[in-house]
């Protein structure tokens, strides 16, 4: 292993360097603000996701505060671990130095991983737990040491506490194991002990879901209606074709699991990949959910190429260059390595008549939050002391609420109220809201709750996503309703 370590460390260092540059630019993403907000309210579950991201956010805040690059370091660390695991899997499959190199380069060359491993989201950790689970399973195949089944249960349990999509991973693994030694593993008590360990890890979240009437089901329904139903029947598959060089490595790996005589005992992973792909396609899943499967395919593909080029080993370096070099021009689109003005010029984005520049949604969702909080703070600080004591900050959506909750801490703003998503769980605070600063809510909404509503400003931003452009800020007085009494009735609308 020692002779392979320098190669793995160099590849990991390259990935770290790219993220060191890209993670610092722009601002927090809308989803990052939500994930950090839930870390301020630790619990065993949330409306949108399990609790792992909240605990990770709490650790990130403890270590780095709310530094953008500090918080994002944890996602990047998961991404680096995926690269290392992919290399280790290639070694466990029987690969030598060339296979390990190409496996790591394949992870470096998969463009979506840069976005996935930059933003502080469950996605990076989901990909990590998938890859870790596969690694432990391969270790068990190679050693028959039951401790790796126990570790498999632990990784699956924490994976389920991070993102529920690991259920599909579990389905693929279970089906794949039916073809491993004719299903002999299902007679091994340690497999069921591993399952019990997984269950015990996820039990607190299951109890939370029961106590809150399974909000995950409502979330999945709303997600399907608002996003997944818009996907065409072939969108999921077509999205996988956008990265042809790494796709080629993965397809070679899939082929190898079924037809290479040295890899046939690992056919479980090929079957799991097919089952997961088919399941996600049928469910019209988001394409990036499937990206977590690629490291296990990259490892086998790298090994197969090493074997094919055993008489011309230097060609492995040519293959690595062909896989990696073409993605370099696309890096600025995947990770914020360029300042926004430079990126706008690089991407040839033209200034529109309304004075805005249209970015991709992920980039656009990183702009505008600081300006929103500054305006709310200036308005809040202008209030008399008595009004401050009775003031609530009412945000329309979780992005605006997250900005007040997280960015607002340096301004000492009170926590917002918001009926969108998990913010509903945290209620309306301790005041009835005799005075209210409303951000994002339309005029008809604020006037239904307050008699005196004064429009302070319409916030515009050159780069912000359309949803956060032209948003109104109102100063409201004389409440018509008791927000605290009405709050419970808003639960059924948390995902509207």
Automatic annotation (TrEMBL):
Its main location: membrane. Signal peptide: none annotated. Residues 50-208 form the Glycosyltransferase RgtA/B/C/D-like domain. It comes from the Bacteria. GO terms for biological process: lipopolysaccharide biosynthetic process. Keywords: Cell membrane, Glycosyltransferase, Membrane, Transferase, Transmembrane, Transmembrane helix. It is a multi-pass membrane protein. GO terms for cellular component: plasma membrane. InterPro entries: LipidA_mod_glycosyltrf_83, RgtA/B/C-like. GO terms for molecular function: pentosyltransferase activity. This is Dolichyl-phosphate-mannose-protein mannosyltransferase. It comes from Flavobacterium urumqiense.
